[in-house]
Amino acid sequence: MNKPLALFCLTLLIVNCVTNQPPTTPEISGPTTARPGDTITFTFVATDPEGSEVSYKIVWGDTSSIDWTPFYASGQPVRRQHIYPDTGTYTIKAIARDQKLKESPWSESLIVNIRLLPPGVPEKPAGPAFCTTGVTYQYRFRASHPQNDSLWYQIDWGGKVDDWRGPIPSDTYLLVNHTFDTAGIYAIAVRARDSRMQMTNWSDTLLVTVVAIPGGPPTNFTIEAASDTTVRLSWQPPVEGVPNFYRLQFKEIGGTGWSTVVETSALSVEHNPHGKTGVYKVSALFDSAEYTCTTTLTTVPVATSALTIAELNAGSNSGYGWNRTTGEGATYSMTQAANAANVDFYITDFQTTTYSIASPDLGPSDPGNIVPAASWRVNGIAGPLTSENAPLPAHSAGVYFNYQDITRTPYLAAIYTEDGYYALVKLYGFNPVDKTYQVSGWFQLVKGLRLIQH
Description:
The chain is mainly β. The protein contains one helix and 33 strands. The protein has one helix at 3-17; strands at 27-29, 33-34, 39-45, 54-59, 65-66, 78-83, 88-98, 110-114, 130-132, 136-141, 151-156, 165-168, 174-179, 184-193, 206-211, 219-225, 231-236, 245-252, 259-264, 268-271, 278-286, 289-292, 297-298, 302-310, 319-322, 329-332, 345-348, 356-358, 380-382, 403-405, 411-416, 422-431, 436-443. It has a five-stranded mixed sheet with strand order 2-8-7-4-5, with no helix packed on it. Strands 9-15-14-11-12 form a five-stranded mixed sheet, with no helix packed on it. A hairpin with a 5-residue loop joins strand 31 (411-416) and strand 32 (422-431). The chain is flat.
């Protein structure tokens, strides 16, 4: 045999000996819930190792099936629609084959639940909570349907139930104007149903106080530091009516009764609590009627009970910081730059025999060499203090330093943060073996206020 003919025969033999591989197991995707009669789209895809075109056989889980589809390109998603006329649970499976009729394994099952889902319970009604008789107000009602059906609503106005209103598209507000004829307290609730008469429970109630003359509580009650020992309380007028005056009251922490700070027609008051912390409330008075704002404000510092904190090189969390929203304290590792935005102080011995409480920005230069460079806070520390409940020292460069040696236990220190907050730290329970302290903290959420009574 000549050489070219021999090479041709060898090549033909090798090609014929290569085994044709089946397509990959089909993957099925599509909805897992639907309603009877819905047209549902499912996607099937398989890949042939040799790049051959692929056909699919689909079992829908009911009495129907697709024997074999036309051939499609390898890896091309193939979409097929199906309708289930009856409720039930259906299992979809598929198998693929290539042009040489080599078949894949059967796919994993896709379970489809065909059922009529009810609407979700409506949200709590929204609208004015203080109203006057004879005046029209607008209220909002909303519910969602998991299958996007339109909805009908029935409203209970606190004793009087309306007829059904609708249809309203799912997840769309129904706006209803209403007038209260009689003074009193009304509990407004709503329920919904869909076109198949599937009905929800009643929603949470909105309590509405209705008066014969215009009136209501102050709104937008806020607090801020007027100085580092005084506060400014501000509010806005009631939604309706002009009160005779406003009454601002204060209850000291641990106290049982409210004391009147001032009765005024102003919308802002500064108060000096003389080192005390507590809770404030404000009311609007209309002749003999008093309407109190549901919002109360506090200057009581947020307490965090004992946490364990370690010296920088002791292998545990040595950083401690407060959440600016909740006031809660937590410990953090000083070895992670991502914690720079959270730490307000850490414990270190600076590789001497004395332990210190230090500002976070000292970490990268600490002899331990384990704190990465980052935007660590530059905080001030004052101590030791002699009282847990007296106002903290006013911030100044001569009182607050970037570290303080812990000369006794328990040790009380004031912290003044880079962003203007005051806090109190108590260190105690020193463990010389683990090089750890127990730490309790109190954080004043009113920015710039150094009152810390707790």
